[in-house]
């Protein structure tokens, strides 16, 4: 969506004041510190890490990375986030006896240009993930990137291509594969052990996106480079409002509810639950995936035409939805905001097989097959085998798995290839509900069949200067 003429004038007006503050990227470095870092890296087997994106989610990812490596630089287009991250890194590392200057950048290329940095964490908005990740791999960095990895199917294809070409280790931040009390690993182990027979149906509940009233145009906050935050997305005004106790905005955290920057709950939580669901039914490998996507119903907070929202002043992702995905192996997956059957649940995955069923989410794993474990437990190594022979029963397991793979050069537990297959189902679901029609998908050629308009929505047009190239 392009801003209306009046909006563009407003954008330019509100951006002028910010431009003075951000036109010269903030870069704080120390030549002596850089020399000290190089010496330290030669004598210390802890990898040096650069953190790209330091908003709310980074407050978990960053400290987890600091348990296993030393952060030497942070980057964010919001100077408030970047400077806060520098302080947090300095405080955490100094308590561990690590005395390092931490460089602060606005431009992530400054991190990718550094030869001393081996690993980058990417915890930006979803629409920035792919460009940064691809350029990081091509710059020789191993990557830990938060989910959902991509905004479009085409971005996933490109990431998989570059990962193969560069051989970089890449972990996606789908922590359900490592942590959450091992409930999801137990679920996969149960299925692989044949405890529910052949899986026939999967019900996935992931919640619906919130709504907002019309969000007014306001001045860009001090320290935020709004134009760079938008990146590949269309140039629009900054919007912010307070509705009761909730903040409504196009920006930090709330970007999830705008198709321009994310995919609503279908990618925000689908990245977790659809991933586990496809793992459970054996449909996350190369050439696998759904063959048809049928939108049963969907409710959006704004009107759509040709798959595009007609209003730009409020959230536009689906608040309620039901999508039916059918796989070539005969399994049907119903993806809903919530399931209202006799076992109605608002979040989780219900696996149903020829011998029984069970429900798993972050709080519990329940059902007759679980009860039967008291008398017929899984083999002692069953979960470890699901986890690639490693022991996931430890703190910080997901990040630890990544750092281990950086050393061994093996595929981590949440690799880009399986994640791309799961997200493809999520992206196809969004395309189907935005166009309000069923889609036929060829998972081998990765093309939508007989629908040029839908196929075009595998990608998006990037704003000039922010293209994603391989």
UniProtKB/TrEMBL annotation:
Pfam families: GFO_IDH_MocA (PF01408), GFO_IDH_MocA_C2 (PF19051)
Disordered: annotated span: 451-470
Compositionally biased residues, Basic and acidic residues: 460-470
InterPro entries reported for this sequence: Gfo/Idh/MocA-like_OxRdtase_N (IPR000683), Gfo/Idh/MocA_oxidrdct_glycsds (IPR050463), Gfo/Idh/MocA_OxRdtase_bact_C (IPR043906), NAD(P)-bd_dom_sf (IPR036291), TAT_signal (IPR006311)
Keywords of the record: Oxidoreductase
Molecular-function annotations in GO: inositol 2-dehydrogenase (NAD+) activity; nucleotide binding
Gene3D superfamilies (UniProt xref): Dihydrodipicolinate Reductase, domain 2, NAD(P)-binding Rossmann-like Domain
Superkingdom of the organism of origin: Bacteria
Gfo/Idh/MocA-like oxidoreductase N-terminal domain segment(s): 63-173
EC number: 1.1.1.18
Signal peptide: none
Domain Gfo/Idh/MocA-like oxidoreductase bacterial type C-terminal as annotated: residue spans: 214-285, 396-467
Protein name per UniProt: Inositol 2-dehydrogenase
Organism: Bremerella volcania
């Amino acid at each position: 969506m392009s801003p209306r003429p009046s909006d563009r004038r407003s954008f330019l007006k509100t951006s002028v004041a910010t431009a003075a503050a951000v036109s010269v990227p903030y870069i704080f470095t120390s030549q002596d510190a850089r020399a000290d870092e190089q010496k330290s890296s030669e004598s210390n087997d802890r990898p040096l890490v650069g953190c790209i994106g330091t908003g709310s989610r980074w407050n978990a990812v960053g400290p987890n990375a600091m348990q296993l490596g030393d952060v030497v630089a942070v980057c964010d287009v919001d100077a408030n986030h970047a400077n806060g991250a520098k302080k947090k890194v300095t405080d955490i590392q100094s308590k561990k006896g690590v005395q390092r200057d931490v460089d602060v950048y606005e431009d992530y290329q400054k991190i990718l240009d550094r030869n001393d940095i081996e690993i980058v964490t990417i915890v930006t908005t979803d629409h920035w993930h792919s460009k940064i990740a691809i350029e990081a791999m091509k710059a020789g960095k191993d990557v830990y990137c938060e989910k959902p990895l991509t905004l479009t199917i085409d971005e996933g294809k490109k990431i998989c291509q570059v990962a193969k070409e560069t051989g970089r280790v890449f972990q996606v931040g789908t922590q359900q594969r490592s942590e959450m009390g091992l409930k999801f690993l137990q679920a996969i182990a149960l299925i692989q052990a044949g405890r529910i027979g052949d899986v026939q149906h999967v019900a996935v509940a992931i919640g619906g996106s919130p709504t907002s009233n019309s969000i007014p145009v306001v001045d860009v906050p001090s320290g935020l480079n709004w134009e760079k935050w938008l990146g590949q997305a269309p140039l629009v005004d900054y919007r912010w409002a307070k509705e009761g106790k909730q903040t409504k905005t196009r920006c930090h955290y709330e970007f999830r509810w705008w198709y321009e920057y994310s995919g609503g709950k279908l990618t925000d939580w689908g990245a977790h639950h659809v991933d586990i669901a496809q793992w459970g039914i054996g449909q996350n490998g190369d050439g696998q995936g759904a063959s048809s996507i049928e939108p049963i119903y969907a409710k959006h907070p704004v009107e759509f035409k040709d798959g595009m929202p007609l209003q730009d002043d409020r959230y536009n992702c689906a608040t309620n939805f039901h999508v039916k995905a059918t796989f070539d192996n005969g399994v049907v997956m119903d993806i809903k905001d919530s399931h209202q059957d006799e076992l109605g649940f608002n979040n989780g995955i219900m696996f149903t097989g020829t011998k029984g069923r069970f429900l798993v989410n972050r709080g519990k794993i329940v059902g007759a097959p679980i009860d039967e474990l008291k008398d017929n437990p899984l083999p002692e190594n069953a979960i470890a085998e699901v986890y690639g022979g490693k022991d996931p029963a430890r703190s910080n397991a997901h990040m630890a798995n990544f750092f281990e793979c950086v050393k061994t050069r093996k595929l981590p537990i949440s690799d880009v290839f399986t994640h791309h297959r799961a997200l493809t189902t999520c992206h196809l679901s969004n395309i189907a509900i935005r166009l309000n029609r069923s889609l036929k998908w060829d998972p081998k050629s990765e093309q939508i069949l007989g629908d040029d308009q839908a196929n075009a929505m595998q990608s998006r047009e990037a704003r000039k200067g922010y293209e994603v190239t391989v």
